[in-house]
Amino acid sequence: MAIQHATDANFKGMVQTEGVTVVNFWASWCGPCKMFAPILEEFAREANDSIKVVKVNVDENPVTSSQFQIMGIPSTLIFKDGKLLHKEVGILPKGVLKQLTAS
């Protein structure tokens, strides 16, 4: 499944679904975010439709970023059935993403 882009207006509806959703908070000026992007894209491709991957631009969506207390980017949040299970700051290897979403 292609990576979807969330906004403050539609974020809640995008994560309050059945199954696993990976949310990446990022910004266009963030070097580590640029390094993490291809890893996230490959993960999303390999997950097919089993895992939803959503990106949130922190500069354009301050309400959602504040709600989840995003202090450093890239930040990755893992939701299952709409509930936050895990929050991690920094670049995650694809293997770690697979481990975090397997539970």
Automatic annotation (TrEMBL):
Quote the InterPro entries the UniProt record gives. Thioredoxin, Thioredoxin-like_sf, Thioredoxin_CS, Thioredoxin_domain
Query: Its domain of life?
Result: Bacteria
Q: Which UniProt keywords apply?
A: Disulfide bond, Electron transport, Redox-active center, Transport
Q: Does the keyword Electron transport apply?
A: yes
Q: Where is the Thioredoxin domain?
A: 1-103
The UniProt entry's sequence similarity note says: Belongs to the thioredoxin family.
Designated name of the protein:
Thioredoxin
Species annotation: Paenibacillus terreus
